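Summary of Year 1 activities. Much of the first year was spent building the evaluation harness for sequence design. The harness presents a backbone, in tokenized form, and records the residue chosen at every position. We chose the following record to illustrate the format because it has been used consistently in internal testing since the harness was completed.
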């Protein structure tokens, strides 16, 4: 059994209360990792194309005030 399979088996064996706590922890953990990746990509300029596209649409009048 590999590490992932062992983790899966342990998760399957959690009681309801422990599973709820695990799920909440994991969602927060996953979101934190995602936020860090987005920040790193942004700082590296990997998302600049999105800014450029938005500005181009705004310049040709394809946007509206909120």
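For this record, the design step produced the sequence shown next.
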């Amino acid at each position: 059994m590999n590490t992932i399979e062992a983790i899966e088996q342990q998760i399957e064996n959690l009681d309801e209360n422990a599973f709820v706590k695990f799920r909440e922890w994991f969602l927060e953990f996953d979101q934190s990792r995602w936020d860090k990746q987005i920040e790193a990509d942004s700082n590296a300029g990997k998302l600049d194309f999105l800014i450029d596209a938005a500005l181009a649409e705004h310049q040709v009048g394809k946007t509206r005030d909120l």
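The chain is about 75% helix and 0% strand. Quantitative recovery figures across the full test set are reported in Table 2.
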